[in-house]
Automatic annotation (TrEMBL):
Residues binding AMP: K187, G188, R189, E190, T191, G216
Oligomeric and partner information: Homotetramer.
Organism: Brevundimonas variabilis
This protein's record includes keyword Hydrolase: no
Binding annotation for (6S)-NADPHX: A41, H153, D217
Family: Belongs to the NnrD/CARKD family.
Job description of the protein: Catalyzes the dehydration of the S-form of NAD(P)HX at the expense of ADP, which is converted to AMP. Together with NAD(P)HX epimerase, which catalyzes the epimerization of the S- and R-forms, the enzyme allows the repair of both epimers of NAD(P)HX, a damaged form of NAD(P)H that is a result of enzymatic or heat-dependent hydration.
PANTHER family the record matches: ATP-DEPENDENT (S)-NAD(P)H-HYDRATE DEHYDRATASE (PTHR12592:SF0), ATP-DEPENDENT (S)-NAD(P)H-HYDRATE DEHYDRATASE FAMILY MEMBER (PTHR12592)
Region of interest: Disordered: 1-22
Stated name of the protein: ADP-dependent (S)-NAD(P)H-hydrate dehydratase
Domain of life from the UniProt record: Bacteria
Keywords, comma-separated and alphabetical: ATP-binding, Kinase, Lyase, NAD, NADP, Nucleotide-binding, Transferase
Length: 274
C-alpha cells in the first residue's frame, strides 16, 4: 500500500473552538506521570495535548513525583494519586488519558491501566504500558475499548504481537488492531494506523529527524489531545501522525522532542478553515 495519509482524509474532522466554547467543552486530557526521576515524558505528552487544543490538561502523578512536576508546569494542572482507585477517581472527570511514557515496568502500571480501563475516558497506551504486557497481552486487551489507541514502535509491537511481524507492517497492524480491539499506531519510517473496523492508512511525510528521545511521548500527547476533543480515535491518530511529522520538518535539523509542540501553532494554522 502506498502512503495514503493526507489532511484531506481528516481536515474536516479537526476540532476548532466555537464562539460559545469553554475549556471543559474543549476536552479534558490526563497524562499519567512516572515516578520522581521519570517525569519528563509525561510533561512532553501533556504539553503536546494542550498545544493541539485540549482545553484542560492534568498530569496525574504518583506521590513522589507531584512536587517535581508542579514546579515545572504552568498551564498544565497537577494531581497526585496514591492508589489505582484514587487514579480511577481522578480520571472519572477526563475525556482521554495517556498512560505508558516512563510509567515504569511495574505491577503498579498494570493496575493503573486496569483502573483507567474502568472509566469512560479513552486511553492512549504507549511505551511501558505496552512492554509490561509482553507475556500476557490478553490482560492488556481486556482493558481496552474500540476507541482506545495503542502506539507501539516496532520493538513494542513485537513484544505484544510476536507472531505478526512476519506478515509485513501493514497486514500486521490490521491483524493487531482486530486482536486488541483498539486502534493501532505502528510507528516507524512509514507509520501504519489501523482500526478494528478495517480502516487503514499509511503515513508518508515522516522524517528521520523524529528519531530522537521523547518524540513518541509527544505523539501520544497529540493523539490524546485530539481524542479528548472528541475526534474519532482513528482520525485523531491519522491527523496526529501527519502533524507530528510536519512539525518536525518545519523545525528541521537540531530537532529535539521539546521543539515539536512549539511548531504546532504553525502546523495548525496551515490546517485551519479559511
Ligand atoms: N524524557 C523522558 O523521560 C523519556 C522517557 N522515555 C521512557 O524511557 C523508558 C525506557 O525507554 P527505552 O527506550 O529504553 O525503551 P524501549 O522499549 O523503547 O527500548 C528498549 C529496547 O527496544 C529495542 N527496540 C526495538 N525496536 C525499537 C524501535 N523501533 N525503537 C526503539 N527501540 C527499539 C531497542 O533495542 C531498545 O534497547 C520508557 O518508559 C520510555 O517511555 C523515552 O520515551 C524517552 C524520553
Ligand atoms: N527514521 C524515521 N523516520 C520517520 N519517523 C521516525 C523515524 N524514527 C522514528 N520515527 C518516529 O519517531 C517517533 C519515535 O517514537 P518512540 O520510538 O516511541 O520514541 P520515544 O520512546 O523516545 O518517545 C515515532 O513517531 C516514529 O514514527
Amino acid at each position: 500500500m502506498k502512503p495514503s495519509n493526507h489532511p484531506d482524509l481528516w481536515r474536516d474532522a479537526l476540532p476548532w473552538p466555537g464562539p460559545d466554547t469553554h475549556k471543559h467543552h474543549r476536552g479534558r486530557l490526563g497524562v499519567v506521570s512516572g515516578g520522581a526521576l521519570r517525569t519528563g515524558a509525561a510533561r512532553l505528552a501533556a504539553r503536546a495535548g494542550l498545544r493541539i487544543g485540549a482545553g484542560l490538561v492534568r498530569i496525574l502523578c504518583p506521590r513522589d513525583a507531584a512536587l517535581i512536576v508542579a514546579a515545572s508546569v504552568e498551564a498544565i494542572m497537577v494531581d497526585e494519586f496514591s492508589s489505582p482507585e484514587a487514579l480511577f477517581q481522578l480520571a472519572g472527570a477526563l475525556d482521554a488519558v495517556v498512560i505508558g511514557p516512563a510509567a515504569g515496568l511495574t505491577e503498579a502500571t498494570a493496575l493503573n491501566l486496569a483502573a483507567l480501563g474502568r472509566t469512560g475516558a479513552a486511553l492512549i497506551v504507549d511505551a511501558d504500558a505496552l512492554t509490561l504486557f509482553k507475556d500476557r497481552p490478553k490482560d492488556l486487551f481486556g482493558c481496552l475499548d474500540r476507541d482506545d489507541v495503542l502506539t507501539p514502535h516496532e520493538g513494542e509491537f513485537e513484544r505484544l504481537f510476536p507472531d505478526l511481524p512476519v506478515y509485513g507492517r501493514e497486514v500486521a497492524a490490521s491483524k493487531a488492531s482486530e486482536r486488541a480491539g483498539a486502534v493501532i499506531v505502528l510507528k516507524g519510517r512509514e507509520t501504519v494506523i489501523a482500526a478494528p473496523d478495517g480502516r487503514k492508512v499509511v503515513n508518508g511525510n515522516g522524517t528521520p529527524l523524529l528519531a530522537t528521545a521523547g518524540s513518541g511521548d509527544v505523539l501520544a500527547g497529540m493523539i490524546g489531545g485530539l481524542v479528548a476533543q472528541r475526534m474519532d480515535s482513528f482520525d485523531a491518530a491519522c491527523a496526529a501522525v501527519w502533524m507530528h511529522a510536519d512539525a518536525a520538518s518545519r523545525f528541521g535539523p537540531g530537532l529535539i522532542a521539546e521543539d515539536l509542540s512549539e511548531q504546532l501553532p504553525s502546523v495548525l494554522r496551515g490546517l485551519a478553515p479559511a
